[in-house]
Amino acid sequence: MWYGFTWFAMGYLRCTSVECRAKKILRQNPLIGTDGHNDFLIKTRILYDGNITSDDFRSKFERGGMELQVDKPRLEESKIGGVFWSAFMPCPANGSDFSNENYAPIVHDTYEQLELYHRLGAVYPRYFTPTPNATAANETWNRGTSEGSRRMDWFQFIAPVIIEGLHQIGNSVDNLRHYHRLGVRYATLTWNCHNIYADAACVINEKGQTVKSSPHWGGLSTQGRDIVLEMNRLGMMVDLSHVSVDTMRDALIGDGDFKNWHGSVAPPIFSHSSAYALCPHPRNVPDDILQLVKLRNSIVMVNFNPGFISCVESNDGTGIPIVYQPNNTIHQVVRHIKYIGDLIGYEHVGLGSDFDGIEDTPRGLEDVSKYPDLVKELLRQGVDDADVVKIVGRNILRVWQEVDDVAMRFIAAGEHATIGV
């Protein structure tokens, strides 16, 4: 009896260390953090011309040594359970031209990126099989969990695909619906250009510089509000990373200018943004907007891009701060997570690395394999185990489920598509 109790007590004591607690969290919970937002698909398009059967691609992806932050060995080392793969295409060269003709090549290339995602799924189904909804995401995780242990050599990833900016739909709601049928489960309202639906936080000027934007619509346009509701109806998450503060506010709660407009019915997300109070970048989320995130039961998934994590104001006229290298560390990433969690609650923060979309990374978070170190750093800085569980994946699954529930309410109410092509 005493012998058994001693072994039980020793087991308990062994799991008071940061190492043990981190392993337990990663074994029992889906870490959806490569991200919130990962640009592996555009890397594959640019560096390998989308040729995933080439010896070069297969060797580097399967054996390691791939450029930037993601390949198969590092995914396995990361202990993650899910990835939102971005079928990103950049804004057209003339981002102020909202014509169908200007967007046509972007739409064409977006379909190619979605096809690339599905081709990857045929070859590597473990990592690139579409996840249709939050219920399926939880079932996918549970199938890979056996009595609290995680077999990293075979479990299925939670792996939906997303788009980054409504310029990618080319002013066509039908394209949005078709993307949804192809597996897209969130859409960022803008990238670094305004569009007919919403204002962006930043634009690219005639010199090719990224600069803080001036308002075009003052938030969402009338068409933008319509398309947000269509995304609610489809069960597609509304992503507010990259949008202006006016657009953030308009999508979260509305501004009263339009009759009966109170923002998105389902909670929007910020898939890869950080805290403006710690790094004053136009892409980051100010404190007053963070309060609206809490009000809407939403989530901010912290971006690891050094420009959004460790920065100081510049005087170059762009309105874009410069990176402050001394604080470009894993510790600073956790500071952003803790800032948001302490301000509005740890139910409203997650991980949105932007890996494979960034060349520089924080020291200690050089690639996807460092996720266990991030979990340890959260614990070292005093974040409770239960809150870490929320941060690494439970929060985004909760929001995704609420988005699905809203879509089901639209169906139950007999709501059908009301806006045309």
UniProtKB/TrEMBL annotation:
Tell me which domain of life the UniProt entry assigns to the organism this sequence originates from.
Answer: Eukaryota
InterPro entries named in the record: Metal_Hydrolase, Pept_M19
Q: Which UniProt keywords apply?
A: Dipeptidase, Hydrolase, Metal-binding, Metalloprotease, Protease, Zinc
State a single Pfam family of this protein: Peptidase_M19
Per UniProt, the enzyme's principal EC class comes to hydrolase
Cofactor requirements of the protein:
Zn(2+)
Documented EC number(s): 3.4.13.19
| RNA-binding listed as a keyword | no
Q: List, in alphabetical order, the GO biological process terms annotated in this UniProt record.
A: proteolysis
Q: Which GO terms describe its molecular function?
A: metal ion binding; metallodipeptidase activity
Q: Which reaction does it catalyse?
A: an L-aminoacyl-L-amino acid + H2O = 2 an L-alpha-amino acid
**Family to which the UniProt record says this protein belongs:** Belongs to the metallo-dependent hydrolases superfamily. Peptidase M19 family.
Q: What is this protein called?
A: Dipeptidase
State the species of origin.
Answer: Saccharata proteae CBS 121410
